[in-house]
Amino acid sequence: MRIGELARLGGTTTRALRYYESLGLLTARRNSTGQREYDEDDLRLLAEIRSLTGLGFALEDTRPFVECLRDGHSSGDACPASVAVYRRKLAELEECVTRLEAARDRVRAQLEQAERRGRPCAR
């Protein structure tokens, strides 16, 4: 399939595909006229990339998953490097949740203080 079809099937743009190719996440083959050609394996790689970036993973974090699929595994997270990325991302998310909970608690305390002082002025 050509780049436009891959973009359409993968729910992205040709520009994004060229960018993924420049990063080495996708590898297009060229036909006799120099046009990019892709196959179902590339669509699968693209789906993995899009799924992970949809969860908030950086493009570079998708690399171990893509490589795992390229190595013939049935799932991009079947390799230790992919699991390590999951662990790192989960730790980042847990840290973010902790910061958000602390901010929520501070705002709640400020609100409670404001409410104890009395009714806010009406504007």
UniProtKB/TrEMBL annotation:
UniProt entry keywords in alphabetical sequence: Coiled coil, DNA-binding, Transcription, Transcription regulation
Origin: domain of life: Bacteria
UniProt xrefs under SUPFAM superfamilies: Putative DNA-binding domain
Domain called HTH merR-type: residue spans: 1-68
Pfam families attached to this UniProt entry: MerR_1 (PF13411)
Coiled coil: 83-117
UniProt GO MF annotations: DNA binding; DNA-binding transcription factor activity
InterPro entries hit by this protein: DNA-bd_dom_put_sf, MerR-type_HTH_dom, MerR_fam
Protein name according to UniProt: DNA-binding transcriptional MerR regulator
